[in-house]
Design goal:
The protein is an all-beta fold. It has strands spanning about 5, 10, 20-25, 25-30, 40-45, 55-60, 65-70, 75-85, 90-95, 105-110, 115-120. It is elongated.
């Protein structure tokens, strides 16, 4: 938050939202926009198969992708995921189809709150698609 003095009191940057600024003529408040997150927290995916691709999005708006990547270990932690509602329902999609042991696509849901989210991933090997 940066504030600089002006003729009628203090003026805040346009990108700073969610607080009130005291001025000699009263207070100026800057409200939170609907697009501003309430806070940020971590999302942990446990038991994911190494090499799997994952995609984390809002369940209410699957086009809003919050994080994606490839699992380098069996536990993946994505830090600083924005939370717009508390609790926030997340949609997680996981797929591993690039190595000798392929897995069925998986879609799971989990809730994220101020403490974060820990979502258990239970992938099933695809015995038919072996090559």
């Amino acid at each position: 938050m940066s504030i600089w003095p002006g003729f009628f009191g203090s003026v805040a940057d346009a990108y700073d939202t969610g607080y009130a600024v005291p001025t000699p003529l009263g207070a100026r408040s800057i409200a939170r926009l609907p697009t501003d997150p309430l806070f940020y927290s971590d999302v942990e995916l446990t038991n994911i198969v190494v090499g799997s691709r994952y995609w984390i999005a809002l369940a209410t708006d699957p086009d809003t992708v919050l994080a994606s990547g490839t699992a380098a270990s069996t536990t993946v932690t994505e830090s600083g995921i924005p939370v717009y509602t508390n609790p926030q329902l997340l949609l997680v999609r996981v797929r591993k189809s690039s190595a000798s042991t392929k897995y069925f696509p998986l879609t799971v849901y989990g809730y994220q709150d101020r403490d974060g989210a820990s979502i258990y991933i239970s992938q099933v090997a695809d015995g038919i698609a072996t090559t």
